[in-house]
Amino acid sequence: MFLEQGIKPENKFWKYLIGSVIIITASFVGQIPFSVAVLYKSFKDKAVFPTDNAEVMKMFEPNLTLFLVMISFAFAFAGIYFVVKYLHNQTLLSITTSRQKIDWGRVFFSFFLWAVFSIISFFIIYFRAPENFVWNFKLVPFLILVAVGSILIPIQTSTEEYVFRGYLMQGFANLSLNKWFPLLMTSLIFGSMHVFNPEVTKMGYIIMIYYIGTGLFLGVITLMDEGMELSLGFHAANNLVGALLVTSDWTVFQTHSVFIDLSEPSAGLDVILPVVVVYPILLLIFTKKYNWSNWKEKLTGKINVVESSN
């Protein structure tokens, strides 16, 4: 079972705190190239070193900014590998899935399911109010975005999934042998990590319902499916399609996307709808496809302590 694979007598919770510090440190090391680039450009242009994150994000050409930002996630992923292997004496597979190997069919099914839904949803919104969007397609910058984004964005989303749905999910399972506790804690922490996003400034804290709800949804499909494959695919599709299809001046990244959204953001049904309608529909689809059952036990039951083979 997925959570049980991390339950070991030597896996005290303090190790997960140390491991988290190591992963965060690795991420900070990965931010050095971006910081050096900003410092160099400020010196070259004889400009004041920017203190606002929005200003920093607009200093370079969007594809270069995306590349520099995403490097830190590659370092963080290396940190995860190091911590899991040498601090916890586990394999990366053991925090990925309870299966003998990663089920890439699940990853790709979840990816394409959410990608198709996201694209259809966007065009419904577009045709309802085309005046809110500007055609932004430029072939060469877009192809570079596809190349950079297709490699680095899945690394970014996978890193987040390995931290929250893998490493910390099993970590909190060691702290409390009730399945609801790691599910709730990782969802809350995942949501709170987005509190400094510019979307929160624009829409208000009500958007945290979406972020925490998304974390809860990803945690549920991880526990129900006994592995992270579905959450890996969903998260990658969500961020990659968003980066390629549409951007705006108030989102985290401004990319060479196909469209630019000019509308003024507001938190309404678009925040609540995914959590209360769309995600339950996806859960129904996954349930039918993978024959999920015994929901109460898998989401709120006791964790059975077993000897791990990893």
Automatic annotation (TrEMBL):
A GO BP annotation: CAAX-box protein maturation
Domain CAAX prenyl protease 2/Lysostaphin resistance protein A-like: 142-241
GO molecular function, one term: endopeptidase activity
Keyword Membrane annotated: yes
InterPro entries, per the entry: Rce1/LyrA-like_dom (IPR003675)
Transmembrane segments: 16-43, 64-84, 104-127, 139-157, 177-196, 203-224, 267-286
Pfam families referenced in this protein's UniProt entry, alphabetically: Rce1-like
Keywords tagged on the record: Membrane, Transmembrane, Transmembrane helix
Protein name in UniProt: Abortive phage infection protein
Native source organism of the sequence: Flavobacterium pectinovorum
